[in-house]
Design goal:
Oligomer: single chain
Number of helices: 21
Structural class: mainly alpha
Radius of gyration: 34 Å
Largest sheet: 5 strands, mixed
Helix content: 55-70%
Strand content: 5-15%
Number of strands: 5
Order of helices and strands: HHHHHHHHHHHHHHHHHHEEHEHEHE
CATH topology of the domain at 380-505: 60s Ribosomal Protein L30, Chain: A
Length: about 500
């Protein structure tokens, strides 16, 4: 059902009548509330008309945003493109003080295009259901960032599908939708591989660079086998990467181990590491085992005697076991005890290796995050933006961005600043973005709220128009004067409160 059918955007015929069906000549398109006010006090007509036009602009912008959220830009691309063009013209002409009739005509054309797109929503979703589902899966895998060429090819095919839906060519639409689905699945797999296997593959490259092929070939082969199993698991079901992640993590640990072994071998070959250090490391490995056996290891005579004591202790246990004249149940209990002891040692060694891998990964992630923040800070000159870093959130406060009084039009002088904002957004490809509009306390609360929302929407639309970013990743919110950052009693405080904040919600904190 179209938005007009749902009653969200009444037809012009309904809007041109008073209650009872009588037409109001000369007042086409004026909101009923304004007509009532006009009947009561003619002198108040001009403000009411202006407010009504602002309401229509906001309503059409909201309807357009919903259409994009419903993926109508794919299902009916030409209609959505026309709707966006007419809405942008209406907004520009309104800002420039154009004729109200011209602005309303643009809005009517925009809403007609939106209605035509909405009428295709059901059939489009039916024909493109599998492709749209695959697109969502690819977005979850961050394909727009991790597999950009494949993603763009899939998006292009989906747009072609939507044009066939608009043309009523269902056969061609089904064929193109199948192709789009396949391309989205390919983009999802490519992104999943880079996201899930990327760390292990990087560690493999590092191991090879360290000479693991000659210095630690067996350990390198263990990592390769685990990585291959992870890739097979991922191809079987890219949407459920849990098993692949586990295998990739184990492969990463093996590559780290191979790197360490290769480095040790290389150090010995080049003479950078003394044999003494190797011996001491070996002693440190034997000591806890001897202690677990109740021995007091002393390495004055070298590690050989200690190893012999360990062997002797184990032999003693075996002899004691063979010499026990107990029941079969007693012997089985002793065997289980020894097996548990052996498993405990293996588990401790595995935990040590896993803990080292986790610490290395955590440190690397922290270093990447800090490096990214430094790079983002360096983008902005003093007086352009403040960077506020909190747990799981980065706020870019555009202190250098100004709007003309009462206007939501972005000045050309601020385009370079918004270009830097786009670079900052690209630095956090997984972040959810909120554009926040804020005003000072001067003026009417309702006007300030609407003005802050329009300014936030203008910045959001600018970003969407100038970079490849999914519309559902970025939203616009107006807070009016409700969230000041400085006292409104001074001009400097009010200037600080008139601001745009770009809030990036980071995944994984």
């Amino acid at each position: 059902m179209s938005a007009r059918g749902r009653g969200l955007f009444p037809s012009r015929e309904r809007g041109d009548r008073f209650a009872g069906g009588r037409r109001a000549p000369g007042f086409r398109g004026i909101a009923p509330t304004c007509l009532v006010l006009l009947g009561m006090q003619a002198a108040g007509a001009a403000p009411c008309l202006a407010q009504s036009l602002e309401d229509e602009l906001q309503a059409t912008a909201a309807r357009y945003a919903r259409a994009r959220a419903d993926q109508l830009d794919l299902i009916s691309p030409r209609n959505i493109e026309r709707a966006a063009d007419r809405l942008a013209r209406a907004q520009q002409e309104n800002r420039q003080g154009g004729r109200m009739e011209t602005v309303r005509r643009r809005l009517r054309e925009s809403n007609e295009a939106l209605e035509a797109a909405e009428d295709l929503l059901e059939i489009g979703r039916t024909l493109m259901a599998a492709a749209l589902t695959a697109r969502t899966a690819a977005q979850r895998a961050d394909a727009p960032a991790l597999a950009r060429p494949a993603w763009e090819e899939a998006e292009n095919r989906a747009t072609q599908t939507g044009r066939k839906v608009e043309d009523g060519d269902r056969l061609a639409a089904r064929r193109l939708a199948d192709e789009a689905e396949s391309l989205y699945r390919r983009a999802e797999l490519e992104a999943a591989r880079r996201g899930v296997l990327g760390t292990a593959m990087s560690l493999r490259d590092a191991a090879l660079a360290a000479g693991a092929e000659s210095g630690a070939p067996r350990t390198l082969a263990e990592g390769d086998a685990l990585l291959e199993r992870a890739d097979v698991s991922l191809q079987a079901d890219p949407g459920r990467p849990a098993e692949a992640r586990e295998l990739a993590s184990a492969a990463a640990a093996a590559y780290l181990r191979a790197t360490r072994i290769a480095a040790l071998v290389d150090s010995l070959r080049r003479g950078d590491l003394a044999e003494e250090e190797v011996v001491r490391r070996h002693e440190q490995e034997l000591a806890p085992i001897a202690e677990r056996l109740g021995l007091e290891p002393g390495f004055g005579g070298g590690s050989g005697p200690v190893a012999e004591e360990i062997r002797a202790a184990l032999l003693g246990l075996q002899e004691a076991l063979s010499g026990l004249e107990t029941t079969l149940a007693d012997r089985e209990r002793t065997i289980r005890h020894l097996q548990a002891f052996s498993d405990s040692l293996r588990a401790e060694l595995a935990q040590l290796g896993q803990r080292e891998a986790e610490i290395s990964a955590a440190l690397a992630a922290r270093e990447r995050r800090e490096r990214t923040l430094r790079e983002v800070r360096a983008l902005f000159d003093p007086g352009e933006a403040d960077l506020i870093v909190e747990l799981g959130r980065v706020t870019i406060r555009l202190v250098g961005m100004k709007f003309d009084s009462g206007s939501d039009e972005i000045r050309p002088a601020d385009h370079s600043l918004l270009t830097k904002v786009q670079q900052a957004i690209r630095a956090f490809p997984g972040a959810q973005i909120t554009v926040e509009g804020h005003t000072d306390s001067q003026g009417n609360d309702t006007f300030n709220q609407a003005l802050s929302a329009r300014r936030a929407i203008a910045v959001r639309e600018y970003v969407l128009s100038n970079m490849a970013i999914s519309a559902d990743r970025i939203r616009a919110v107006g807070f009016g004067e409700s969230r000041p950052v400085a006292p409104n009693e001074t001009e400097s405080g009010r200037a600080a409160n008139r601001r745009i904040d770009i809030v990036l919600e980071l995944s994984g904190n």
